[in-house]
Fold this sequence. Notes:
α4 packs across α5 and α7 crosses α13. The protein has a domain of 194 residues: Hypothetical protein af1432, CATH 1.10.3210.10. The chain has 16 helices and no strands. The protein is mostly helical.
Amino acid sequence: MEPTSDSNFEETVKSIGELHGNMAVLSKLDALLKDLNTDISEPERLIQSDGAISGTIVQLSNSPLYGFNDKSDNIATALQKVGYNQALKLVGMALSKQVFMRDLESYGVTADSYWRYSYFTAVFLERQAKALGIDSDEAYLFGLLHSIGRVVINEILHAREVEVFWDRFIPEKEWELMMIGFTNQKAGSILLRTWDFPAELCKRVEQQNHNPSTSKDLQILLLDYARTLALHLIDPPRLKALCRPGAHPAQAKLRLTEAELTKEVTEIEAHVDEVYTSLKDC
């Protein structure tokens, strides 16, 4: 297969971005919530502009995930009940159902596995960022969106009717470069720029695999550990080993004991299960 030129690849990524254009709501909401001068009604209007997102959010606010007895029937009451500080996470949940709950046939990854992997890393980064005093919303978005480039490459190969699947006998990067000439990190970065996500986030997505375990960027270091944990959630012995001291350089930053880290992973796993069930019911 002939490699794709830079310009053609960017145009292809942008066209895929248009198919999932409602993801731009997430970047716009992030910007609104960071603006201290934002009127409280603006996030409501933004979310209401997409019927599918707003409907899912109202259903989520009424789900056992939040445990309220009173039911919401619109975005305003849903956000008032759950809390405006949860708006970004609610929209992230709703959009993750649309974008991440789909099979990545080219990678041999099921929809359930891809969603759980992406959402676990998002929650792990968010919780550790809060503990470390760094921007937790920024970390949450990085965790949630770091592998969205896989969606791009999967859709490109599907559109070209290419039935050569990644079999893991060769590194993922090598396979992607061989198939289309670009990595999923590059594709994800271009896609996020198309949706007007912050430049720093786009840069992190593109650079996430540049010596991540020794990165001076704390979010990239945390992501590398989160990804490793997420990939071994179904392997309890390996997961237990990954929580032991010295298993990953990120542990030195977290300053958690083995027991605390194990508890943290267990709690996040349980939360991911709760969100998964709630989204499936929406």
